[in-house]
Specification:
- It contains one helix and four strands, in the order H-E-E-E-E.
- By secondary structure, the protein is α+β, with helices and mostly antiparallel strands.
- It has a domain of 37 residues.
- The strands form two sheets. It has a two-stranded antiparallel sheet. It has a two-stranded antiparallel ribbon with strand order 3-4.
- The longest helix is centred in the first third of the chain and has 9 residues.
- One of its GO terms (molecular function) is structural constituent of ribosome.
- Belongs to the bacterial ribosomal protein bL32 family.
Length: 59
């Protein structure tokens, strides 16, 4: 049966775990109505439109 020869250091252990925690930031898209950046699949905060329909009334 295979057994580790030396104890894995805290640094090596943490480096291994850190590789799994990396993530990519959410990309922004342009709103088709007002051309402001917004999160995908969400109502635009500037104009209140989603899929070319006004969902939220804005001032």
């Amino acid at each position: 049966m295979a057994v580790p020869k030396r104890k894995t250091s805290k640094s090596k252990r943490n480096m291994r775990r850190a590789a799994n925690s990396k993530y990519v930031a959410v990309g922004y898209v342009k709103c088709p109505q007002c051309h402001e950046p917004k999160l995908p699949h969400r109502v635009c905060g500037e104009c209140g439109y989603y899929k070319n329909k006004e969902v939220v009334a804005t001032k």
